[in-house]
């Protein structure tokens, strides 16, 4: 059983999670982490680890789940803040760019795990993307132009958009000076995808 809540972490837990994310990026994988190395990087005694986690796997799962929860709620809040009739791809993707930059290590780890070996971390990341897709479809179907969209067609397009956005975030981390170009790319991809959803849905009737 996990010992610590995944909500607001105490300082020791936060330091351990940040250290684990940093070392995962440096070593290329979270699966090679050693407890003592993580504790040393966090500036803590290794015994402190067990006040927050049962083992390394539980710590990495908490790291992924915490970040996934932050992204899910933040994306929905960002989408809800857009004025009616205004394109929300720029605001939502812009928010994601900022969060990816503020949490570059955990973002990189999550993206790697998405294409890594089967395991609990990959499962968390994939479930996170599925949750984002479900939320996005629910929100998009409230738009007048998409109310008649076929759910399966919309979901397919949204899945691709979310994957594309993840890679745009990676591009932004590597080239922050290209922010507006990348935001324009996100808007173009969204517009094209939704136009395709409408056309395919009408053709499927």
Average of per-residue pLDDT values: 87
Distance between the termini: 50 Å
Rg from alpha-carbon coordinates: 19 Å
Strand content: under 5%
The major beta sheet can be summarized as: none
Characterize the overall form.
elongated
In total, the number of strands is: 0
SSE string: HHHHHHHH
Low-confidence stretches: 1-8
Helix content: over 70%
Give a written overview of the molecule.
This protein is mainly alpha-helical. The chain is built from eight helices and no strands. Helix 7 packs antiparallel against helix 8. The radius of gyration is 19 Å and the shape is elongated. The chain starts with 10 loop residues before the first helix and ends with a helix. 28% of the residues are buried. The N terminus is likely disordered.
Quick recap of the structure?
The protein is mainly alpha-helical and 205 residues long. The chain has helices at residues 11-27, 35-42, 56-80, 89-102, 104-114, 120-140, 151-174, 179-203.
Task: List strands and helices in order, with pairings.
Blueprint: H1 11-27, H2 35-42, H3 56-80, H4 89-102, H5 104-114, H6 120-140, H7 151-174, H8 179-203
Helix pairs in contact: 1-2, 1-5, 3-4, 3-6, 4-7, 4-8, 5-6, 6-7, 7-8
